[in-house]
Amino acid sequence: MGFNCGIVGLPNVGKSTLFNALTESAAADAANYPFCTIEPNTGRVAVPDPRLDKLASIAKSAQILPTQLEFVDIAGLVRGASKGEGLGNQFLANIREVDAIAHVLRCFEDSNITHVDDSIDPIRDAETVETELMLADLDSVERRLANLVKKARGQDKDAKAMMATMEKLRDGLAEGLPARAIPTLDEDERKSLPSLQLLTGKPVLYVCNVSEDDAISGNSLTQKVAEKAAAEGADMVVVSAAIESEIIALNPDEKKEFLNDLGLEEAGLARMIYAGYRLLNLITFFTVGPKEARAWTVANDAKAPEAAGVIHTDFQRGFIRAETISYEDYIANQGEAGAKDAGKLRIEGADYMVKDGDVFHFRFNV
C-alpha cells in the first residue's frame, strides 16, 4: 500500500517549490505566475526511518530499500473552480485520484511574490479552496441523489439505503460543512466516504509555508492555522519551502550541519511524511536479510496476509504463516538468530494484526 497525497492550494503559495524540494527534482516549474503547474507532476520520495539502517547494520544487508510515498503537485485553484473557472475541472479531477490532501498555505510576507488576493491570510485561502471543493461535492451528491430517486421508485433496496446517506451529505454540504465533518454520518457511512470519491471526504494536512526565520517556531499566521486544524481534528506542519530547496544538493553530513545551524532537528520532508502517516493511519514493517533490508507500508489495521500481499500477491494468496520478531527484540538480540535463541521469534497466523516495526519472514505455498 502506498501513500498518495495531492499538494493543493492557491497559486503562488509555494506548492511547486515544496514539491521540487520534497522529490529532490525540478519536475515542477516553480515560477511566479498562476498555473505554472498545468499537468499534475508526480514524485515518489523515500521515507526516512532510522530503524531501517539499524536493522541493515545488524544483518549486514547489501542493500537498504526504504518504503516510498507519492506526492502529486496539482495546479493552483481559483474561485469558481467548481464551475470550471481557471483550471477548475482538471484541478478537481486530479484531487479525486489522491488518498489525502496536503493543503499548502502561505504564511510568509514577500513583496516580490504576488498573491491572487493581494494580501496574506492563510485562513481565508484555506476557506477559498474548501468552499470550491464543497460546491463541487454538493453538485456531485445532488446528481447522484437524482439517480437514486429513480432507482428507489423501482423498489431498489440498495438505492433506498444509499439515499439516506446522500441526503445527510447534501444537507451537511449545503450548510458549509466538508463531508468528513458532517456530524449526522454514522461510522459505516464515514467508512464509505473513500468509495464515494468526495473531495471534502479526504483527510487533510495543512502545510504552513513560512520564511526561514519562522521555520522553528512558526508565527502568528501559523498559530491561526493550528487553531483551525485543531478545531477540525486535522493535522498541520510548519515547513519552509525555501530551506527545503536549499538543502536539496547537500550530502547527508552537510544537510545535518545546515539544519543544526538553523536550529532544526529534521527536514520539512520528514515532518510531512510523519504527519502523512498519522493522517492515513499507516504503519511500517520490515523484511531483513543479507541481500536487503526493506521497509514496507500497510494500513494500521492490516493482518499478516495483507502485509504479505504488499510484497507479492502470491504471498497473500498462499499464506501459511508469518515468522515475526518485533523491532525492539531484533535489535536487543542482535538479529534473527539471537532473537530465535531468546524465544522472541513468534509464529503468527492469518488473524495476526501487524504492529509497527514488525520484522517478518512469510511462509507461503501456491
Please state the overall shape, judged from the principal axes of the Cα atoms. Answer: flat
Unreliable runs: 26-38
Helix content bin: 40-55%
Could you state the order of secondary-structure elements as H and E? EHEHEEHEHHHHEHEHHHEEHHEHHEE
Rounded to an integer in angstroms, the radius of gyration calculated over CA atoms is 23 Å
Strand order of the largest sheet: 2-4-1-5-6-7
Strand content: 15-25%
Distance between the termini: 22 Å
SS field, number of helical segments? 15
What is the strand tally? 12
Estimate the mean pLDDT confidence.
86
Given helix and strand content, the structural type is: alpha/beta
Largest sheet: 6 strands, mixed
Write up what this structure looks like.
The chain has 366 residues and is an alpha/beta fold. It contains 15 helices and 12 strands. The chain has helices at residues 15-23, 50-59, 88-96, 122-153, 157-174, 187-191, 193-196, 220-232, 241-246, 252-262, 268-280, 304-311, 313-317, 327-332, 336-341; strands at residues 4-8, 41-46, 63-65, 68-73, 100-106, 204-209, 235-239, 282-288, 292-299, 319-325, 346-348, 359-364. The protein has a 6-stranded mixed β-sheet with strand order 2-4-1-5-6-7, with helices on both faces. The protein has a 3-stranded mixed β-sheet with strand order 3-9-8, with helices on both faces. α8 (220-232) links the parallel β6 (204-209) and β7. α4 runs antiparallel to α5. The radius of gyration is 23 Å and the shape is flat. Residues 26-38 have low confidence and may be disordered.
